[in-house]
Amino acid sequence: MHAELSPGLYIVATPIGNLGDLSPRAADILSRADVIAVEDSRVTAGLLRHIGIKRPMTPYHDHNADQVRPGLIERMARQVVALVSDAGTPLISDPGFKLVRDARAAGHLVVTIPGPCAAIAALTLAGLPTDRFFFLGFLPAKSGARAEAIREVAGIRATLILYESGPRLAACLTALAEGLGDREAAVAREISKKFEECVTGTLVQLAERYADAPPKGEIVVIVGPPADAPPPAIEDADAALAEAMTRLPASKAAGEVAKRFGLDRRELYARAMALKGESDA
Ligand code: SAM
Q1: Using a CB cutoff of 8 Å and minimum separation of 24, what contacts does 141-146 make?
Q2: Same domain, 173 and 211
């Protein structure tokens, strides 16, 4: 016998391919929900069939969310409302953030039942740095807007994660190579399904590979961070120090510039004093 669930919003992650990845807790919450907000009831019906339950579903997707949301928020005061998407973690390139925002604003309980997410699963497969990563979702389909979106992230010192479709993959990889340089990358496809694969190479190599053979299925592209920047030139640090000393005492200026350039604070303080001596002379 389970304790009764408190009313509120339950964000339930579902499998991205392999139904065996539905967690026991996710199945338990779904089986006890008063209503499940779904993107596509046919998709979620399949999942519910897999765990042998039937629950009321209500559509919640990009086209009806604004109309449906107030009713769902109202129900959360007295009922268990579960939110799922067709696959993976709701809200991640899927509807839901406004539902969570409004549920919080109304003072309702908000609980997440974590589970599969294609972006994170792909990151674990790629063999690229995982200490800092930046999720881009889907890039714009039009080439101009896509190039602009890529330019915006070119300077970010992190691994990039993006969702893409098979027919657009080669053009996307080429645009990434043009905008970011030929970085190390990976194409993760059909994760947790029969034809799962993760192909690694540079962006140019991968673009060539897929140019005449657009892959089938669902895809995540992972792009490694930019190569290490050269160490800052000491002249740059001196210029920054001179500027900082117009605003700050020498010790504070040295601290600020040391932090920004990753240099030794005491060494910079000595340079600051030398610069001060030169300007006082
Ligand atoms: N909310 C989902 C999540 O947590 O990953 C993502 C939803 S988004 C609308 C769907 C995209 O996720 C697909 O177009 C594909 O890029 C990626 N994706 C979903 N399942 C995948 C899988 N099994 N293998 C690779 N990519 C997948």
Answers
A1: 141/168, 143/171, 143/175, 146/172, 146/175
A2: yes
Run of H or E including 277: helix 265-280
Q: Could you say which of 98, 116, 134 is where a domain stops?
A: 116
Please tell me whether residues 30 and 66 are part of one structural domain.
Answer: yes
Judgement on whether residues 111 and 57 belong to the same structural domain of the protein: yes
Rounded to the nearest angstrom, the distance between the alpha carbon of 254 and the centre of ligand 1 is: 47
CB atoms within 10 A of CB 34: 15
> Distance, CA 218 to ligand 1 centroid (Å)?
6
Q: How confident is the model at residue 132 (pLDDT cuts 50, 70, 90)?
A: very high
Q: Same domain, yes or no, for 175 and 268?
A: no
Domain count, the chain: 3
| Atom number of ligand 1 nearest to Cα 92 | 1
Per-residue pLDDT for 40 more than 60? yes
What is the sign of the dihedral through the CA atoms of 213, 214, 217 and 223?
positive
Pick the closest to residue 39 from 86, 2, 83 (CA basis).
Answer: 86
| Whether residue 39 is found in the same domain as residue 77 | yes
Ligand 1 center–CA 9 separation, angstroms: 23
Q: Which residues have CB under 6 Å of ligand 1? A: 16-17, 85, 87-89, 92-94, 117-119, 163-164, 188-193, 218-220
Please report the pLDDT score of residue 262 as a whole number. Answer: 66
